[in-house]
What we know:
Layout: E1 3-8, H1 12-23, E2 28-34, H2 37-46, E3 51-54, H3 63-72, E4 80-85, H4 90-98, E5 103-106, H5 111-122, E6 127-128, H6 130-141, H7 160-170, H8 175-182, H9 186-200, H10 205-214
Parallel strand pairs: 1-2, 1-3, 3-4, 4-5, 5-6
Helix pairs in contact: 2-3, 3-4, 4-6, 7-9, 7-10, 8-9, 9-10
Amino acid sequence: MTIRVLLADDQALLRATFRLLLDSAPDIDVVAEASTGAQAVARARSSRVDIVLMDIRMPDMDGIEATRLITADEALAGVKVLVLTTFETDELVVAALRAGASGFLGKGVEPEALLEAIRTVVAGDQLLSAAATRALIERVLTRPDPASWESAPGIVDLTEREREVTRLVGGGLSNIEIGERLYISPATAKTHVNRAMMKTGARDRAQLVVLAYETGLVTPGGV
């Protein structure tokens, strides 16, 4: 399967650089470009893409709002958004993930790591850079009164095993690693993850990670 990509960045030189890299991969094809947030939304709708590489700072509409519009559109239910930016602050990480982004990377990412990140997100897994993960944890640490999962909608409805799996997802473990930790198959781990996402309303694993931290189900260093 060829992954269809939309590049959204207001800098033409960066778009050209990314296109050259992505088109060099046999399983990735850049099918559209956008230089503004509004264009990104429109071209996501018209180009039948699998994933949008989204910059945050763009004219007329920023990448956060564009991400929110794309992920809220039922006609674009299968489209993933991978935010690629020079600004890996806690506010932007949380805002992007709350808007529905499936991943968050800095623009200094290595070429091969970017290609693998695209494949990872399209496959349905979360992807956060080390800096983004630190920013998310630091955001949780600065909260004066963390929420309790015991009263959090969705989380409280999870079975004990689903909560256990969600904690491990929050710790960044893959389905294979979760299976090894709990002595279950990766397929069974994936089933538990999918059920947890359904019950909590999380669009994907990235949002499940945010929910796990924000409800206190996972605490920094606790996995």
